[in-house]
Structure formats: structure tokens, C-alpha cells
Write a structure and sequence with these properties.
Mean pLDDT: 90
Low-confidence stretches: 204-214
Number of helices: 17
Largest sheet: 8 strands, mixed
Bound molecules: adenosine-5'-diphosphate
Number of strands: 14
Distance between the termini: 5 Å
Oligomer: single chain
Helix content: 25-40%
Structural class: alpha/beta
Strand order of the largest sheet: 5-4-3-2-1-6-8-7
């Protein structure tokens, strides 16, 4: 079995997969709203859910997960603990830089590289590294594998990943767009391309049966998808024929869309303007990473709360959501232009999977791209990949499964049947 650990900015997810048994997920859990007073831990095994209040940091969350797995008895032999059956641990690591683009066994050298890259992912790499170190102590006898968020974006062409800044910044300092959330963009686009291939060839007007018509595979090589990963962190990817050609996040996970606490795109001149007013670089960085985005505008970064606040007439919640949606809509237009069209739009992650009203507002006015969603389909709530619009450009909700993607990559690296 493989244990995956996925430490987000405010959440820690884990899963245990039995890949040898049809990729069965035997246990999973989520500790969410880490760092807030309203934290919660949810653990699930054999269809039974446990909910616990949680207060603490990522280290405390990991200890609680370890305690839970230790208590679970071995399903096959009825003895020992589930922890004993773990053959490898797959860790989601946000930034691999140019040095680490493929899933990699974690040696002390790899840990040092992840640490060296902290300035590029200050909210994530420290948490990822902490998770690795704690998990290595708890499970010292199994291999630990890092799976990088940057990897899926390594197919971007140079004209997309380079910034128009002095050339030496790239050659000497690696200043370029890397992109993040790659595991999620890879997973949801692959689900859409495999299960909904028939819908992803709409330009010919051809409806494919389960035995694809001649030419369909050729057409699928060039299908143009935009994926919107909308969680606490948000990013979009432009994907042609399954390969990423552009994404909104850049050198760090701060670029691009407006997020929970991160600003996304602002005028690059803002840094020197604020510095001129006496703000230090560290304070500026902290403000843009931790006190901006939805939180900066409406003093709240949780979309559920913001939607309730807007219902109750909050002007700042209205503005924050309007900005969030407007920037998303502009990005869809830009990526459609970059690809020369769009064959499918995919929503995923906390907001993308659950906030029907945000999906509807993003799609409003995108009819010129063939994007039209059905109010009825959009209102359906479940955990399955599903269509919410059957216009010229199909719109889908695909629940992300970064954990399964990480488990598969981990198994591939260690090369064992697990
Ligand atoms: P992270 O980046 O921390 O992994 P998630 O993917 O869990 O984030 O997404 C967190 C976001 O999803 C929060 O803004 C949360 O409010 C939002 N969200 C979760 N469920 C809902 C819901 N039912 N309606 C609206 N927003 C939701």
C-alpha cells in the first residue's frame, strides 16, 4: 500500500491506496482550516467517517494522522497496524525548480534542494519539507518519493515560460515561469480526455461512439482544454493534446489568478511604489502572499463564508467575488486565444467543485466561446466527474484526485506492485 501526503496552505490530506487491488483507496482523511480556531479533522476508512475538532499546526495534523493509521488493524491478516503495510510514501512537493522535474526518491540531497527552493514557494515548500521529515521519522524503513507540482508544466514552450526581463536572470538565477498544481491539472485533464473523448472532438460536429471513428485519435491529439483549479490557491492551465502549453502561476505560486490570501497579478511597479512608502521587501512579500486576494478585499478568504456574507448584503464580499470572477473570465479568454480555441472547460478543487454560483458567474458572458452551462446540471452535487454544459464548448466539473496521481507516480518510481 502507498500512503500519500498532500500538505496545502491550510489543509493536510492523506490517502492510503492499494494499487495492486484496482487502485482501491482504503483510507483517507483531511485536516482542514489549519491555523484557524475552527479547524476540523475528518478520517474515513471502510465507509465510516470520523469527525474531530482540530487545533494546531501542520505538525500536529500529521501526528493525528499517524495516530489514526496506527490504530487501524491490518485488513488482510487481522493483526498489526495499517502503518505496517505501507510500502512507500508519496509526498506532494510544490516546487521542484529546474532541478527536480520528475518524481524522485527523497535523499538528503533532494531535501536540501527542496529547502533551497523555499524562497520560490514560501507558503508550501516549508510545510512539504516538514511533512517529509516527520513522515521519514515515523516510517523510516520505506522509500519516500517527492512528486512535484511543477512537473506537468515542464512541456510549456519557451515563449510561454520566459519572462521579458534581462536574459541573465534566467540563465543565472532560473527566473522563469514554472507553474504549480500540476498534479491536479494533469489528473483532471486526463480524466476528461479519457472518459469524455467523444465530447472533446466537437469541432467536427462528430459524435463518437465507443469505437472511435477514423480520425478521432488524430483530432484528440490537438484538443484544447482549459482547467481551472480553484481552491485556496487558484491556477488555470491551457492544455493542448494533453500537454500543458501555458499556466497562470509562475516563478512562484503568487502569479496569476486572485486567490484566498494571494494577490495574483498586480502591476510589477507596485513593489517599488510600496518600498518608496517605507515598506520592506519582507513585509511586501508577506502582504501579497498572506493578506491579499479575497482576504485583502473582504477580510475573509473562505469562499463559503464570502458567499453567505454577500447574501447578507456585504459590499466588500460582493467586490471580492466580482474581482475573483472577472479575473477568471479574462484568463479563460486569454488562454482560448493562446490556443486558438477551446474544446472543453474544466472546474476543479474546493471552489471549482462545490461553488455552483461561482461556476455560473465565471461562464456568464463566455457564450462567444461556445461556453453555456445548464442551471439544472450545474446545481447537481456529487463527487463524480460531470458535465454542466453541453454547448459547443462542453463545461465539466471533475473532482481532482491529486492523491491517486501521486500514488501512481510513487509506485512507478519504486517500481513495485503495491
Ligand atoms: P486548498 O488549496 O487549501 O487545498 P481547497 O481545494 O480545499 O483548498 O479549497 C478551499 C476553498 O474551497 C475555500 O475557499 C472553501 O471555502 C471552498 N469551498 C469548499 N466547499 C465549498 C462550498 N460548498 N461552497 C463554496 N466554496 C467551497
Amino acid at each position: 500500500m502507498i500512503l500519500t501526503l498532500n500538505a496545502g496552505s491550510s489543509s493536510l490530506k492523506f490517502s492510503v491506496f492499494n494499487l495492486a487491488a484496482g487502485e482501491e483507496e482504503v483510507a483517507n482523511g483531511l485536516v482542514e482550516r489549519i491555523g484557524s480556531a475552527a479547524g476540523q479533522a475528518t478520517f474515513e476508512i471502510g465507509g465510516e467517517k470520523q469527525r474531530l475538532d482540530f487545533q494546531g499546526d501542520h505538525g500536529d495534523a500529521l501526528s493525528q494522522i499517524g495516530g489514526f493509521l496506527r490504530k487501524q488493524s491490518r485488513r488482510t491478516a487481522g493483526q498489526g497496524s495499517m502503518l505496517d503495510e505501507i510500502k512507500a510514501v508519496g509526498h506532494r512537493v510544490v516546487h521542484g525548480g529546474e532541478a527536480l522535474q520528475q518524481p524522485t526518491i527523497i535523499t538528503s540531497e533532494v531535501e536540501q534542494t527542496i529547502e533551497r527552493l523555499i524562497p520560490l514557494a514560501p507558503l508550501h515548500n516549508p510545510v512539504n519539507l516538514q511533512g517529509i521529515q516527520l513522515a521519514k521519522e515515523a516510517l523510516a524503513n520505506v522509500p519516500h518519493v517527492a512528486v512535484f507540482d511543477t512537473a506537468f508544466h515542464s512541456t510549456m514552450p519557451d515563449h510561454a515560460y520566459r519572462y521579458p526581463v534581462p536574459n541573465e536572470w534566467y540563465t543565472k538565477h532560473g527566473v522563469r515561469k514554472y507553474g504549480f498544481h500540476g498534479t491536479s491539472h494533469a489528473y483532471v485533464s486526463a480524466v476528461a480526455r479519457s472518459r469524455y473523448a467523444r465530447i472533446l472532438v466537437p469541432r467536427t460536429g462528430q459524435v463518437l461512439s465507443s469505437a472511435p471513428a477514423a480520425g478521432a485519435e488524430e483530432e484528440k491529439k490537438h484538443d484544447k482544454i482549459i482547467t481551472l483549479h480553484l481552491g485556496n490557491g487558484c491556477s488555470a492551465a491551457a492544455i493542448v493534446g494533453g500537454k500543458c502549453v501555458d499556466t497562470t502561476m509562475g516563478l512562484t505560486p503568487l502569479e496569476g489568478l486572485m486567490m484566498g490570501t494571494r494577490a495574483g497579478d498586480v502591476d510589477p511597479g507596485l513593489a517599488s511604489y510600496m518600498h518608496g512608502l517605507g515598506m520592506s521587501v519582507a513585509d511586501y512579500d508577506k502582504a501579497l502572499n498572506k493578506a491579499s486576494g479575497l482576504l485583502g478585499i473582504a477580510a475573509e478568504n473562505d469562499m463559503r463564508t464570502l458567499l453567505s456574507m454577500r447574501e447578507e448584503g456585504s459590499a466588500s464580499a460582493r467586490l471580492a467575488i466580482a474581482m475573483f470572477v472577472y479575473r477568471l473570465r479574462k484568463t479563460v479568454g486569454a488562454f482560448a486565444a493562446a490556443m486558438g480555441g477551446i474544446d472543453a472547460l474544466i472546474f476543479t478543487a474546493g471552489i471549482g467543485e462545490n461553488a455552483a454560483v461561482i461556476r455560473a458567474e465565471v461562464c456568464e458572458g463566455l457564450g462567444f466561446l461556445g461556453i453555456e452551462i445548464s442551471t439544472e446540471l450545474n446545481a447537481i452535487r456529487n463527487n463524480e466527474p460531470r458535465f454542466i454544459g453541453h454547448g459547443k464548448c462542453p463545461v465539466l466539473v471533475v473532482p481532482t484526485n491529486e492523491e491517486l496521481q501521486i500514488a501512481r507516480a510513487t509506485a512507478a518510481v519504486i517500481g513495485a506492485a503495491v
